[in-house]
Amino acid sequence: MALRRTFALPRQLLRPVARSSLGYYTEQRNGFATAVPPVTQDATGSKGPTAMVFLNMGGPSTTNEVEDFLSRLFADGDLIPLGRLQTYLGPLIAKRRTPKIQKQYADIGGGSPIRKWSEYQCQEMCKLLDKLNPESAPHKPYVAFRYAAPLTEEMYTQLLDDGFGRGKGGRAVAFTQYPQYSCSTTGSSLNELWKWRNRLEGRRANESVDPSGSIQWSVIDRWPTHPGLVEAFAKNIEDQLKTYPEDKRDSVVLLFSAHSLPMSVVNRGDPYPAEVAATVHAVMQRLGFSNPYRLCWQSQVGPSAWLGAQTSDTVMEYVKRGQTDIVLVPIAFTSDHIETLYELDLEVMEEANSPGVKRAESLNGSPIFIEALANIAQEHLRKGEKCSRQMTLRCQGCKSDRCLEQKKFFAGEEAASLVVGHWAYIVCLLTCISVNALLLEMTNQTNSSVDADVGGQLRSRPVVPAQNHPRNTGGDDPKDPAQLHVHEQTPLLQRTREESDDEGLDTSSQDSAALNAGLWRSRTKASVFWLFPFLLLYMLGFGGAAVPKINLMVSLTCRDYLAERASSDPGFTYLPVLLGKDNSQCQIPEVQSLVARFQLYYNLVVGLLSALISPQLGHLSDRYGRTSMIAVSAIGTVLAEIITVIVAANAERVSLYLLLLGATFDGLGGSFTAIMALSTSYASDCTISGKRSVAFGYLHGAIFTGIAAGPFLVAILMKKTHDIMSVFCSALALHVLFFFVVLLVIPESLSKEQKQRAQEKHQVKLAHQEDVGWLSMTFWNPKKIIAPLAILFPPAGRPSTLFPNRGGASPALRRNIILLSVIDTLHLGMALGTSQIIIIYAGYMFGWGNVESSIFVSIISSVRVLNFFIVLPIITRIFREEPREDLVISGSGALDVILIRVSILLDMIGFAGFALANHGSLLILSGVVTSLGGIAAPVLQSSLTKHVPRDRIGQILGAKGLLHAIARVIAPSICSFIYSVTVGKFSQAVFVCLSLVFGIAFCCTLYIKAHGK
């Protein structure tokens, strides 16, 4: 019914007086309810109307209503579960308890004031809401109680009579007056509302289509830590504390009391205890933790186990110990009713028999509280959401079909997470189909090329059996690096001459590339511009999900730590960890240390597997094509993202360590580093040597543009959706798109003949080699992994791989190569090692969340992009050095040496700035400085290639690539370990260490001589 009328409370409830304990019993009875101010209507009319329906348990307004109230209460299995005997035991218990409860209501004035307070609060809120949100005005107030008048069916009938529904449509908001959600309270009220909606307006067709012209419902289902609610509670507590002598005020115990729940409900996974604890913590945080406090529970009914400790027992124990100054705070109630006026005031305080035991005023008509209600409703209406994300998650042990259907009804399209697993199954099914398609394509290539062509070509050459063949004749011993033949087409990871020497390579043959890959791909010429836009999309997904993934790890680690601490310390309470939110309770050293340790495990899994897999993908790409292997690598990323989505969607139920399965998938695909290496090979295949540096520039531009723009787009997405799942799903969609485009659309860069030639040479190599099994020690010999690094240490004065001439390398060239390789590896390793630590550190020191961290990453990545595309080209053009015609090997130019030294110095200053920053803006400034130092990466690579003959560039870059793979494993592990053992003690230690490392690197740059002199 529309509640636009004045009313008054019983006379004995209108006189506000100071509260004490047993000796002042009469004053307690008469003074706990605040008088209701007169109601005036000041609506601002607009397109509405909108029905605002307050949901609550309710209470009998007169003693004659007590029996009906108890009958409905004990018949509700959501609140008091009695099993199959509910129908029989409920009425029996209600009838037996009626006389006793009637006397209790008589003692507080003849009935509960909850209806009148609820009607007043709803009316006053609607008046404010008309002004705050005029577009949905007028807002009409209604109250629906679960067990007393006005009952839900009465309210719904009144809604229909007032012009809502019945073909007229209209919007209604179910606003629970239980700040903390419980299936026994809010859930039960929503079940009742859903039941009467179906009875009075009809069920949805096919569970999705509402009857024509029916009421459109949304739900405000919880608000335990809303600032207005917290402020209202804090203000009432402060007012009560002022009644104590000033010298005793700080020692008064604040005893927060909430309605208890049966342990069967708690063990089912009900969120109520955690949300009540969250309210308590927020209130104490607002009070500055000025007083000792505890949380206890009241209103236990029946012999079964209920959540404790009980409020009455707690007060008695403290009074016995001499702690007689106690303020009771009804933290889960929004107005006075039987639990406050009788149970706390007349039972608990009477039994305590101490004038120091008092109770804080209930929220009742508090202007602060009513304004908070209006703000909550305004935010809900403007968001246009059906319900909170939390409501779509069922309790772990919930088996109620009614609960499921009710949640589906109110959640609408947001109910997808209620059936978590179905969409993930579909994505996995599509992934499996894609993998099968990929394997089928590779099989077809093998059948058509190897069987049809290689066999005939092999027959034209004499093949000596392995056991009789004079192995490695002609000085081509692969164990001797000085005998390896390399040229500009050599892949980044070195191979023997038989496998890598491709004298017949002709870039003009691209028109015949990928003839067996479909009509579209066979008629399209390969180009770096085919790969560039889709690689950019891939990096947008990679860069955008990086920060939210780190914060997901922080949230899950924090949740587990706080839960474990609470289980070992029953007195410990904490705010619930909300996924995708800024959880200030997680910014503690213990959590930071655990996160850094997990990051160590995660990086080790990805790094080690990718270091082993990446070279194999490079070999396979020569025989089966670049796009096929890029797709293989992309499928690893897709699977890893699926794991991330599953973990984020089921954060309440799954373990943090499931993310390591995603790391395994990512590593088995070679991670993004393998995709970049294979993309570089693709660009090399379809670009002439004179324009290859430009093509590489496009690919690196895609990397850093994606890393820069990804976090920025995530920040926008988060501000709009307020849902972290949208970020992970978007990243997954981008990676799935990249996989299918690479597999089905982008033309292959290698022609059919080139792949056939590579397969033929592989067959010849296998015929000349001994069969080395997986269990052989030779297969697992670590020397096979690090053998390519030998070329970085050329002997001076004698021939070597890089310098096969008689004189070999000069001492100056040898020194430059070693120093440049070491500095380049340190530079990359430190960048990888701190990329995640800096996000965790910023969250710990400055309370940054997803949005702030994403903006930070976007800023420093944008500076890096500007460095590569604007600053470096301008500097190179202005200070360009003429090539030295008198030198076959020019060595580092003077400009190269200066740029390297300045960049390393900027890195040293930037990391020192990280350690000294005491504000977020200084941290951003330090990040910009380190980004400017990022110019060292391309200059180091370019300078290194100037120290070797032109036909040896591929091999030295291959060795450098191996160093990068090793750095990716070692550097993040060391940085994570340092941070995990120093956080909270000297959290800046990792940045101090890195600044010192760059200081040493800067000293090393002083020994690099221009032109190898």
Automatic annotation (TrEMBL):
Name of the protein in its database record: Ferrochelatase, mitochondrial
Pathway involvement of the protein, from the record: Porphyrin-containing compound metabolism; protoheme biosynthesis; protoheme from protoporphyrin-IX: step 1/1
Family in the record: Belongs to the ferrochelatase family.
Entry's EC annotation: 4.98.1.1
Alphabetized PANTHER family for the sequence: FERROCHELATASE (PTHR11108), FERROCHELATASE, MITOCHONDRIAL (PTHR11108:SF1)
This protein's record includes keyword Lyase: yes
Keyword Membrane: yes
GO biological processes: heme biosynthetic process
HAMAP family from the UniProt entry: Ferrochelatase
The organism's taxonomic lineage, starting at the top: Eukaryota, Fungi, Dikarya, Ascomycota, Pezizomycotina
